[in-house]
UniProtKB/TrEMBL annotation:
GO terms for molecular function: holo-citrate lyase synthase activity. Its EC number is 2.7.7.61. This is citrate lyase holo-[acyl-carrier protein] synthase. The lineage of its organism: Bacteria, Bacillati, Bacillota, Bacilli, Lactobacillales. It comes from Limosilactobacillus mucosae LM1. GO terms for biological process: prosthetic group biosynthetic process.
Length: 179
C-alpha cells in the first residue's frame, strides 16, 4: 500500500484543463517575448486526482536539480517562472540559449536515463512563424514515450485506459519512493 496519494487536494478535470490553458498562455508569452531562446516547460506525469503534495514537490525539485546540472553542461539557461505549490502539480519554466532540437535531445536523454525520470514531462518549445511550436520526440527520430507499466507507447495505453489509476499510482509511488 502506497501513502504518496494520501495527502493533497484532489483535482477535478476542469481545474486540470484550466491549468493547462494557463500553462499554454505562459508558454506563448515566453516564446513571443524571447523568440531567440528555447523554452522548457517542466512538469510531472502524476495519475489520479492528487497531483501535488510535499513528497511530490521534493521529488520534482530533486529531479530538476539533476536535470539543471546536465542542462548547464551544454547550454546557458535561466529559470523563467515556477509554480511549485499549485494543486495541479509543480511546474517550472526555463529559457535556454540553444537550438530547440538539441535541447529536446537533452530533455529526452534525461527522461529516459532512469525509471523515476520517466515521470518528468519536459516540453521543448520555440517560436516559428510567430507561433509557439512544440518539438516532439518523433520529429527527431527519437522513440515515443513508453508506458510505465507495460512498455507500450504511453499515449496508446492512456487512450485505451489499459491500466487502472490504482496500478499507475502504485508504480509512480514506487518510483518516487526509490528515487
Amino acid at each position: 500500500m502506497n501513502h504518496l496519494f494520501e495527502n493533497g487536494k484532489p483535482q477535478s478535470i476542469p481545474t486540470v484543463l484550466a491549468n493547462r490553458d494557463r500553462r499554454v498562455a505562459l508558454q506563448n508569452q515566453l516564446t513571443a517575448k524571447h523568440p531567440d531562446q528555447t523554452v522548457i516547460a517542466a512538469k510531472l506525469n502524476i495519475p489520479g486526482p492528487i497531483k501535488n503534495n510535499q513528497t511530490i514537490r521534493d521529488f520534482f525539485a530533486a529531479g530538476l536539480a539533476v536535470f539543471e546540472k546536465q542542462l548547464a553542461a551544454k547550454f546557458q539557461f535561466r529559470m523563467a517562472e515556477q509554480w511549485l505549490g499549485e494543486s495541479t502539480g509543480p511546474e517550472r519554466f526555463y529559457l535556454v540559449d540553444g537550438p530547440a532540437a538539441q535541447v529536446k535531445r537533452l530533455t529526452t536523454e534525461f527522461e529516459e536515463a532512469q525509471a523515476a525520470h520517466r515521470l518528468f514531462d519536459l516540453d521543448v518549445l520555440s517560436r516559428q512563424n510567430n507561433q509557439t511550436v512544440s518539438i516532439s520526440r518523433t520529429e527527431l527520430g527519437l522513440p515515443k514515450r513508453q508506458c510505465l507499466i507495460c512498455g507500450q507507447p504511453a499515449k496508446e495505453c492512456a487512450r485505451s485506459r489499459r491500466h487502472s489509476v490504482a496500478e499507475l499510482q502504485d508504480r509512480v509511488a514506487a518510483l518516487i519512493e526509490n528515487y
